[in-house]
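1st attempt posting a full record on here, be nice pls
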Amino acid sequence: MELDKRTLKLIAVGASIGANCKPCLQTNIALALESGADEQEIEAAITVGKTVRKCAATMDKLAASLNQVLPTIENESIACCGSTENKPKERRPK
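the predicted structure (as tokens):
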């Protein structure tokens, strides 16, 4: 199953909120509108993103407890949207 462009851009709007990325949000709102999304759909995507972001702090605690098995990035210079040429490596138990 493939998602249509409108749906993908609405997901990107919510993800931009979750990532606290203002340039991503501005770009993805414009692209969502161009793809046929309406203002109510964008507002709904923003609400979902806010809910996800609100819960992120609890994930930090979980991630810390799983620190031994989570992947890590060798080079910390990653763009806010996650692009990097470095591949994650798996941490070994201490």
